[in-house]
Structures are given as structure tokens and as C-alpha cells.
Amino acid sequence: MTAVRHFLDVDDLSAAELTEVLDLSAHTTLAQVLAGKGMALLFEKPSARTRHSMEMAVVQLGGHPVTVAAAEVGIDQRESAEDVAQTLACFHAAIGARVKSHRLLERMAAVSSVPVVNMLSDQAHPLQALADLLTVKQEFGEISGRRIAFVGDANNVSRSLAIGAGLAGAQFVISSPPGYQFNGVDLDRISATGTVAEVVDDPVYAVAGAHVVYTDVWVSMGEEAQASEKIDAFAGRYSVNEALMGQADADAIFLHCLPANPGQEASEEVLYGPQSRIWQQAENRMHAARGLLAFLLEAS
Ligand code: CP
Ligand code: NVA
């Protein structure tokens, strides 16, 4: 048996494997690789899209999802994260976890005999990036050469998107206020994909000529203590409104991972306007999850 494949961020896949996963995601009928099997889904934070898309992807592959609030399991309280992972692997063909600390996923993956899938951590949101790239592919036919402009925080969503965009051969530019930009480690990881991310302050520069304009909340789950300081840093200039969208390519689309704060990081007109593809993007969470699970379970 080959080594078990985990998915903690998009660069756990090679560029060719990312293409394969996106191709698989386009197929609604796949081999029932989870027939008679389960997948454990653990949540330390709230979720709408991730829980539902993962549960339905598991069902579509013939399996049974078991969703549990992590507090109920008592990770590192009732028993260690390592013992939780090894226990769940006794019953399930894969484990998904949404965690406060990325390190917890690494500890589970280090001992798990079944694939561990990151359903969002403080560092990464790779399932979201797969759905985002699938949406770009559906809209433009190919991802390579497209210019993806992210306006906002250098966070879990933009980090995984930058890595995925790089692997897929897209251009990636992010505009964030000083103090909220990618650090050297992030930039090295993105460069390792073969694409150099552009990091700028100016959202107008970032969006100019872009095919995709993307934003996310300014205050992520778990950052509530920094809310007022972050809102002060982003307010006004980093809000995607119709004027900013007007700087993008005439055929540009707008994406947001959701949930959104209408009127904050994006105006209502943009979020629900003609260039927005947020519902297609949300649906793609399920298709991308199905494609990824099919790939991981075939490969492991
Ligand atoms: N985009 C996303 O992950 O949504 P949820 O937090 O609702 O799962
Ligand atoms: N950056 C956001 C994404 C939510 C899907 C957060 O971590 O809260």
C-alpha cells in the first residue's frame, strides 16, 4: 500500500495532481470509493458550507459522514489529538477537521493511517481554494494565465488561494494594508509553486485588469479580540465596491468564500451583482470536495 495522502494545504498536491483533482471535481458520478465506509468530520469552529459540502460529497461517494463538535470529543482534554486520530481511523476511511490551530492537524496527520483533510485552520483553507479554482476554470475555460486579485487580509483563504493559483499557473496579486500582508515564509511557499505572488498596498493597482476579484472577511473566526484594530486598518480603502470592480477586466468575476459582511469587505451591489459568482462558488465546494476525496482515497 502506498503512503497515506493527507490534504492540509493545496501544496500537498503537485501541479499535475491539482489538475487531476479539478478534473475529477467536474464529474458528478464517480466510483463509490466510500461504499460501506465512513468519514469523521470534526469541527472546532462553526460552519455552513464546509459541513454540508463535505457531508454531501461523502454521500455521493457512497459513504456515511459522522459530524461531531470537537468539544464533544475533547481533543487534548479527554484524550490526545494523536489518540483521537488513531481511534477515528479504526472506524473511518478519512478524517476531516476544522481547527483553531494548524498544528493540531499536523499532529493528527502524523499518526493517522487514513487521509486527514483540513476543513479550515488558522493557516489554510485548501478545500475553499479547490472550489475557487474550479469556479475560475468553469468561467474562463482555463486557470493558467488568468489574473486573480485578492483584496484584503493575508489569511487562511488568501494563502491557500495563492498557493493553488500558483500551482495552476495563474497570476496572483494581493493588496493588504501594511501589517496584514504575507510574510517571507508565505512568499517562499507561494514561489515554490513556480509563480511569484505580487504583494501591494494599493487595491486599485491589484484589481487593474484582473479576471477575478476576490475578498474575504477582515476579521476571521478566532480573531475577535483584534476586530476593532483590523477594521480600522481595512475600512474604506479595502472594500470591494462597484468603483473598484470597474478597474478590473470587463469580463471579471467577483468571488467571496462566505460568510460575508455586506457593506464591509464588499458592497451589497458587488456581492449580489451581475459579476458575482458566489453561489456557483459555494456549490463548487461540494464538487471539489468529492473530487478531492476520490483522489485521496484512490491514491492512499
Ligand atoms: N467558506 C466556508 O468555509 O464557509 P463555512 O465557514 O460556512 O464552512
Ligand atoms: N477567513 C475566514 C474564512 C471563513 C470561511 C475565517 O477563518 O473565519
Notes on the protein architecture:
The chain is built from 13 helices and 9 strands. The protein folds into 2 domains: 133 residues, Aspartate/ornithine carbamoyltransferase (Rossmann fold, 3-Layer(aba) Sandwich); 150 residues, Aspartate/ornithine carbamoyltransferase (Rossmann fold, 3-Layer(aba) Sandwich), CATH 3.40.50.1370. The protein is 42% helix and 14% strand. The protein has 300 residues and is α/β, with parallel strands linked by helices. The model has no long low-confidence stretch (mean pLDDT 97). The longest helix is centred in the last third of the chain and has 22 residues. Strand 3, helix 5 and strand 4 form a beta-alpha-beta unit. 50% of the residues are buried. It has a 5-stranded parallel β-sheet. Bound molecules: phosphoric acid mono(formamide)ester and norvaline (NVA). Norvaline binds next to helix 7. Phosphoric acid mono(formamide)ester binds next to helix 2.
Helix content: 40-55%
How far the N terminus sits from the C terminus, by CA atoms, comes to 7 Å
**Can you tell me the residue ranges where pLDDT is under 50 for at least 5 consecutive residues?**
none
- Helix and strand pattern: HEHEHHEHEHEHEHEHEHHEHH
Tally the helices: what do you get? 13
Query: What is the mean predicted local confidence, pLDDT?
Result: 97
* Global structural class: alpha/beta
Shape: globular
The CATH topology label of the largest domain is: Rossmann fold
Largest sheet: 5 strands, parallel
Give the C-level CATH assignment of the largest domain: Alpha Beta
